[in-house]
Sequence to fold (289 residues):
Amino acid sequence: MSSSQAFFAAYDALLARWPTGVTEIDVPTPYGTTRVHAYGPAEGTPLLLLHGGGSTGAVWFANAPALGTHHRVLAVDILGDAGHSIPDGRPLRTTTDLMGWLDALLDGLAVPRAHLVGHSYGAWIALTYALHAAPRVDRLVLLDPTQCFAGFRPGFLLRSLPVLLRPTEARARAYVDRETAGTDTDPGWKRLYALAVSGFAHRKLVVGRRPDPTGLSVPLLVLLAGRSGAHDTARVAARARKAVPDARIEILAELTHFAMPTATPAQTNRRITDFLTGNQEKQAALGTV
Fold:
């Protein structure tokens, strides 16, 4: 089996764990065709999910059942990353291009306004987009966001370097095993990640400047991994509170950066769902939180 065949077999295995009723949609944009996994009531508020680098939209299998109860889940294969999206249009090179791609994607899905949830690199895209097009974003959830409020730990970059320079499945798997040690991160996703890193070395993720979140006008929830190797969690939390005083910021003490979103999904799903449905505000008004 070729590396490409192994990757798509692992991808399909994760997708098979999504709930019954998921629909695959290919959305044309000026930058290429984007694969979207859609689940949940058609009349539900759209909820766009943006994965971390190398994870693909299939990674949300443990979140879709809960998030799709009241929302129309739209899990994207980010264009330029591994997955079923095909960059066969205009080159996707800059942050402006990336924002144009998301504008076109939402237009193609006939979604004028949506909630956004992003993990890691996907969180950077989600925050950048919420600043770019606030009227199109209802609420914003960032899962251990990178390059949003603080930079990477130097040690994290050093550990990542060998995987980036000489990507092999074994090296990528050893790396992600180390970064998820002590968590119940899904082994099927870890295999998919290792195959994405090793089999899609030509991946071209658009990387831009750290956004200035002080102008954010969208309700924000930040869920941080207490054991994140990617950055200093306390520093990220402090900077997020300073930049967006009204944001809700919580630390999931037992999780690591790569453990999201597959490890202990029930608590993550509950926090996201409560925030998106306004349950936290309702409970606070009643004095129950």
User: Anything to note?
Assistant: The mean pLDDT is 94. The first strand starts at residue 23 and ends at 29.
